[in-house]
Amino acid sequence: MNNSVIRIYALYPGAFNKKCSSLFRLVVMGHRGPLWLADLCKLYNEDSVHTLCSLFEHEWKKQQNYYERLNPEEESGRETLLFSSNTSSGYSLLYAILKTFRPNLIKVVLLRLSTDLLGILRPLTLRWVILFCERQPLFDWVGYTYSLVVLGAVFCFAVSKYQLERHSSVTIANAQAVLADALYRKVKTLSLSHSSQLQSNTTDADTLLSVEVERVAGLGVTLACLWSSPLRVALYLSLLWRELGPGVLVGAALLIVLISVRIAVERKVKQLRSSQEIIRERSEKLVKEMLHKLKALKFLAWEPWFHQRVSESRASELEILQILRYLTAFSLLDSICMPFLVSFSGLGLFVLVDDGNVLTPSQIFTCLCYFRLLCPTLQELPAHFSGLKQAQQSLCHLEKVFLSKDLGTSHLVTTEGTTEELPPDSSQQQCHRCKRDKHSDSDEERDHQLFQKGSGEARRLYLSAFGWHWVAFYSVVFLCVCAVCIAQDGVLSVWTGEAKEVQGLEEWRELRNSRLSVCGLLGLLQALLVCCSAYCQTSGSLRASVTLHSELLSDVLHLPVHTAQTTVTKHLLHTFIQDMRVIDEKLPKHLHSWVWSLLEILSTITVICFVMPIFSLAVCPLIILFLHIQSHFSSAHIQIRHMETNPIVSVTSHKEVCQQHWLYPMNQNLLVKYNRTISESWFVLQLDAVAGIVLFLVSLVLLQTQPNSGLVALVLISAFNVREPLHRYSQAASDVDIDMLSIQRVSEFAKMEKEAAWTVAYRAPFDWPQQGEVKFRNYECEAPFIFTPAIRGLNLIILKGEKIGVVSREKADTDHLVNCLFRAVEASSGAVLIDGVNIACVGLHDLRSRLQIISQVPVLFSGPLRANLDPFARHTDAQVWLALELCHLKEQVQQFPAQLLHPTQRTSFVLSLGQRRLLCLARAMLERVKILLVEEAPPCVDLATEHLAQQLIHTEFKDCTVLWLTQNPLTVMHTDRVLVLKKGQALKFDAPSTLLQQRLLLSQ
Q: Could you tell me the CA-to-CA distances from 547 to 467, 537, 698 in Å, in that order?
């Protein structure tokens, strides 16, 4: 078995190397049009999920057998070497993962070592070139050799880095796949019960599967490369010590202090994010409630109330987000100012401790290069330790799940805010994968359409919401930041040139002090400008978040009832929750990275062209080459990234799916991850080739023109550092394009057809309707999206105060009648007149606020009980209590601890369905409406409560026009007249006794 494992994984990289031609075809197809799963590079059998999971299952069974063999000895006090049944250490699971992926992990270790050594070699080659320029009077063949050495070092580093990232990503994807499959098998094989050892619910299971599996999947690669950061720190410090001596300790100490401050800031950010998540959960629940109860909300004309509630919750969320954004100013200082500050402190101490310490170009710019490499490397160490601690907890948790005899979770399927318990799976249970596939295909097709439209309009929309004045301020400030960065390196370059011409010690001291002062002032100016840029970014991005969310909320609340009902709730929730989270958090960060990297690239080109004007001839071809690579790869790369899903989360949703259908999405997801890894790695290698060409041309031209050695060092360091901005620009550009899909989804609702205006210039009288007379005049309307008549040729008059029964065998007929009265659909011909006023001429809120409906299933909203009766506080508490008393609910409400302020979502004091109908009746009493619609009560409502409701309607609404909507003719015998509907037409409209004699009621 072990030989087969080695053989398969030895062939694993080769399997993907064979796909290079397929990758080229993939890139071309992605550039020309949309990509589909069938277009991706195919997996070989040895790369499939089935093969990988078989290998892992074999290793894990070894550990389980070892556990079962030693488990009886635990009673006598002995424990297993790898794990104990009482407390899972996680070592067994880790050992199985390491054994399964041992060949790949060995390759990762070797590639990590070669990448680190080649990373050290790159600045060393630059030092040799600068020293050559300082000492060599004439350019000869040695200069070409140095240029080739620089190119070779860059090329070797790029290839090694490419292989490392590729193998690491593939190993993590494989580990994630096998752990997800193992969890699925555990769910399928264990008997599930309510007596839970883990005491987890569906949300906890999702967290386990999505977060903890991801941590454990990357643990093997992290452990294999854990030695890398300390090794690089030691190498950088030793090389800096050779250049600066003890002066390097000041820079290193300052760096450690700044890292400690950064850790404290990150701890504060973590606390704020915890608070933000609590507020965000409340906002999400409010949005879900709004979407699920939107029809009732619109019929009550309470949209402004809910708009205010959601906006207030959103404001609380944005307050914390604003603080978090201001804390990003420190992260900007950390990434932009820290390298200069650490370098300045180390170099300053070196020249101050001894007047004989004079910095040469090779020394000063080599130290700058090492310090810039040291800063991110040292910052990695705390993150590694924190990640290892979290991964260990996840490892122990997962091992406990794998070793448990009873998983302890019920089959909970969460759909649209409700949780229902399902029986355990069986082989005969129906597989719902086809339905899910239809939804996923529609989502994919929808996103493809958005992608084809392009992101230009979305960018303009976001920048407009951002504020063009903030865009201008932000751009100007960042241009100033780049100018200061160039000035810092320029001052050091000029200083090294002036130091050669200094005569005497006093002149040297004066020059040293002046240049250090200038560098210090530039550092302070840089920090100030960075803080200003953070303020501009925070102000603009918050403005964009507020504007886009407010517009989205308004657009959704203005959708017609039928559109809101037919629009997939999942899309609405995704837009409100996921897309807005992208706009709030990810998009500003990605835009900042894009702007900063772009300006960094432009500043580098400016410096090189200023020192070497001849290089400007190569700028245009290089830019064209870069844009060509970017355009061809970005399109395919973005589409592949968008295809990628998280199979871990889908374990809970696939519990009822057979194993064959479970492995299909797992293998599909692994296929997408492989293609993403290949495309990303190849793309990065192409960018490294562009950076290598730039460095080679710069070194070649410099060695031929023989300018000042300080300028040589400045230009070489600028060309050396162009690699990182190129990578950041490409990644940020890809991220921004993906984020723009969220803007496009938000803007989609602005383009959808809206319902009629809530208020119009013509306002009905304040006391309209006074009588409650309803007249249908040749009224016809069409059913939404069916375009067939729903109500046809309706001509009738309902007199004031009449109690009318509306009977139809199909509930759709009564629903259409309700929709036409509330103008959920507009008339295609004819009109409805209430007290002589055409309802089509008044605003929707003016109309709907004068009507009330007691729905079959009464709707109450979250919040205080009083707000469910009088959300706009138009009535006094005494009036509210009177309405409750008339509805026989006063005593019940007085038992609540908060009485009128009692939250309706509380489960300790539950109102029955009948009592909820009575609450809706109390709401109609407060509004003193003249037209009331009452739908038939469901069978679960007790007869006494429903009889009470009927009595109240006959006594308290005796002057009102009441329409009883039912499918049971016997429940409307108490009415004045009965309207019989069939397929949208009025069959008869007469007294119930007359219709009974004619046998029209029971035969309709």
A: 10, 15, 47
Residue corresponding to tokens 């193992």: 182
Owner of token pair 């009550």: 300
Q: What angle do CA 795, 814, 833 make, to 5 degrees?
A: 35
The overall longest dimension of the chain from CA atoms, in Å, is 126
Could you please report the per-residue DSSP string of 840-889? Answer: GGS-HHHHHTTEEEE-SS----SSBHHHHH-TT--S-HHHHHHHHHHTT-
Mean pLDDT of successive 10-residue segments in the chain (1004 residues)? 35 45 65 66 64 80 70 44 50 83 88 89 82 64 76 88 87 84 70 40 50 82 86 88 84 85 85 88 89 90 92 91 83 79 83 77 81 84 82 81 59 34 36 45 58 76 93 92 88 75 73 84 89 90 93 91 70 86 92 91 90 88 87 74 58 48 69 79 86 86 71 83 89 88 89 88 84 91 73 89 90 89 90 91 91 89 90 91 91 87 69 87 90 88 85 89 89 88 86 76 55
Nearest to 852, CA basis, from 735, 932, 768: 932
Parallel, antiparallel, or unpaired for β 851-854 and 931-935?
parallel
Tokens coding 729: 């620009």
Residue 56 CB-density burial (10 A; 0-12 exposed, 13-18 middle, 19+ buried): buried
Give the domains, in start order, of the chain with CATH numbers.
91-451+466-643+658-751 (1.20.1560.10), 774-860+911-997 (3.40.50.300)
**Among 330, 324, 363, residue whose Cα is nearest residue 261:** 330
SS3 833: strand
Burial of 140 (0-12, 13-18, 19+ CB in 10 A): exposed
Strands 931-935 and 418-422: unpaired
DSSP letter for 912, please: P
Instruction: Decide if 606 contacts 485 (C-beta within 8 A).
Output: no
